[in-house]
Amino acid sequence: MRTEHPLTTTPLTAELLRGALDLERTASGLLPHRLPARARAQCADGQLAMAESQPSGVRIAFRSRATAVELDALPTKRIYVGAPPRPDGVYDLLVDGELVDRGSLADGNTLTIDMAAGSAETRPGPAGTLRFTGLPDRVKDIEIWLPHTETTELVALRTDAPVAPLPERGRKVWLHHGSSISHGSDAASPSTTWPALAAALGGVDLVNLGLGGSALLDPFTARALRDAPADLISVKLGINVVNTDLMRLRAFGPAVHGFLDTIREGHPDVPLLVVSPILCPIHEDTPGPSAPDFSGLREGKLRFLATGDPEERAAGKLTLTVVRDELSRIVRERSAEDPHLSYLDGRALYGEADAARLPLPDNLHPDAATHRHIGERFAGLAFAPDGPFDAP
After folding, report:
1. Which of 124, 334, 361, 362 is the least buried, fewest Cβ under 10 Å from its Cβ?
2. Helix (H/G/I), strand (E/B), else coil: 271
3. Within 10 Å of residue 233's Cβ, how many Cβ atoms?
4. pLDDT of 337-366, one tens digit each?
């Protein structure tokens, strides 16, 4: 049996991080970003800034014989005025791809959000330390998946054995973009968001550009997808365009074409899968915007309502039914010249039968069990023999 060794600090560098497109040096440490600096500079929206800095799919990854690992980190906690406290973000520890431990930090900065007033205030707090011990005494691949809904600055990494970056394992890189559902809203932990589960089942390395509230066909997001290395790409489009009431049908089609054109500039032959929205009953035939229903907030129950008028579809307002028809048409027409482009109806991931068994608790977002269902369903369809991601 190994005697206990003192912990030594390993500098946190890009070589030890997976899933981030940019790293920012801060006064506290290293802040992973899921959009590059140029993209962030082109939009001052607070929701986008919060979403892209929440490290969904980002993990510290290294090979080591370490039996003890410590991570100092500074998370930013969200507090919603009038609502019960949110649970602390979860850090998942994986050894050779298997989840072996979890931890959370109670300390950190706080971001207080008043949804009724539309205001937010940030207050600084201290960093905390996560400790994982009792790991198997052998050379192994270790991953610490960062909380998918807490902005997290990485301060220090300590282990009781030397650390090396993970060697190349021959895995394809899957680059995925979507809304808060892809971001992982209401998933149990960062390695159990539906994209993380699907990536594990498909044996690929995930880069998750699921951006809560911000899958809005922004040109800077398309350029980020264009410029990021990828072997497989999927874009799950539609729900945010509907629930923000961002555009009409006349603008939506050309915006989708432009988004796909930009991705193809950097990845002309990569399998590109367009995924339409999963079933969301409130917006199937009713346009946005969505609005929060605060009536149950003090009991920890927040639900969303569709506030649009179904009659306005005639004037070009978007619903999920309209969006799916348009995405299907666009992919069908483009695929005549783009054999690596394909379409997946989101209701194949979560449809009417699934909603009867696993209803959306807030009318908009899947819970932990539904994330697992969607991840397994996506893996079974996308990575199956002759599926859209079954490319040599």
Report:
1. 124
2. coil
3. 26
4. 999 999 999 999 999 999 999 999 999 999
